[in-house]
């Protein structure tokens, strides 16, 4: 009886959660349309520019070969959809996670309350996230991104909190002695000094979002994850390997670029 009532209540809340997910849907569809609209050579040049600037000429060549391989196996559109999903998830993780991390660094009570929630989010198996997401949001690309956001959110919160707490009191006192308000001290002193740690959290969030791509395909999310899922369902090992290779290529490129951005801060 209790289980039945819970299910009915969750289904009744679906219209509300559909409205809540509207911003995610808007950003996701916009990025997906943009990435698929831009011609392959231009996207390739953009990737090569960032690869060269962050990791040098050799990595840029390796990345070019990997991206051309994705295009040759006719998975470019799926790769751009996957990229749109990842970027959307990371954008919302940053928008949600950094303010929560700042609040955690300001309030010990808030940190104590938030810590077990983050522990649960990081220890629950990724498949379990899909159950409430499907019941509240339905199936499709947007629910897949919602599950990815929940799964990838903890690192950016934890490392934002850690980075700001590690800023020395002397820096804060110096800012205060110059007449800066608490908000200005946060913006001009604490965040710049904690930026390397915050960027490390964003890098971890990005990698977790990538790891969720295939799993999110179980609830109708598209992209390379769907390619792998469908291929495995048909026991088409070749297509599954090719789709998985595409995910690995994107993961390596994005990881190396963001890692160098972290180390350069």
Short description:
By secondary structure, the protein is mainly α. The protein is built from 15 helices and no strands.
Topology:
Layout: H1 2-12, H2 14-20, H3 22-37, H4 40-55, H5 57-72, H6 76-106, H7 108-123, H8 126-137, H9 141-152, H10 154-165, H11 169-177, H12 182-211, H13 213-216, H14 224-233, H15 237-264
Q: How many angstroms does the end-to-end distance come to?
A: 55 Å
Task: Identify the overall geometry.
Answer: globular
Helix content: over 70%
Tell me, rounded to a whole number, the average pLDDT.
85
Walk me through what this model shows.
The protein has 265 residues and is mainly alpha-helical. 87% of the residues lie in helices and 0% in strands. The protein has helices at residues 2-12, 14-20, 22-37, 40-55, 57-72, 76-106, 108-123, 126-137, 141-152, 154-165, 169-177, 182-211, 213-216, 224-233, 237-264.
Descriptors for this entry?
265 residues, single chain, mainly alpha, globular, 87% helix
